[in-house]
């Protein structure tokens, strides 16, 4: 695979079949050109619209709520998940 160093602007080739940790550096200027990947954090979230606008995601049709759903407990639970 062909690479070009951003620091010294020289092109070079690396064999990806035999890629080692030492190959992360430019052979001309020793610039470290491979950036470490960030590990994503595991998250648990509710994937729906805003429950204050559209509460169908949390509404139980079997229960009678009098037309309104109290989302205060849900808001507290979501805040705890974010921490």
UniProtKB/TrEMBL annotation:
GO BP terms: protein import into mitochondrial intermembrane space
Domain of life of the organism encoding this protein: Eukaryota
GO molecular function ontology, one term from the record: zinc ion binding
This protein's GO CC annotations: mitochondrial intermembrane space
InterPro entries in the cross-refs: Mito_Tim_assembly_helper
Full protein name: Zinc finger, C2H2-type protein
Lineage of source species: Eukaryota, Fungi, Dikarya, Basidiomycota, Pucciniomycotina
């Amino acid at each position: 695979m062909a690479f070009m160093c951003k620091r010294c602007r020289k092109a070079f080739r690396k064999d990806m079949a035999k890629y080692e940790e030492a190959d992360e550096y430019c052979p001309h200027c020793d610039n470290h050109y491979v950036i470490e990947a960030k590990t994503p954090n595991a998250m648990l979230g509710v994937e729906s619209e805003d429950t204050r606008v559209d509460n169908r995601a949390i509404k139980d049709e079997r229960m009678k709520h009098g037309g309104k759903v109290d989302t205060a407990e849900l808001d507290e639970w979501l805040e705890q998940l974010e921490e």
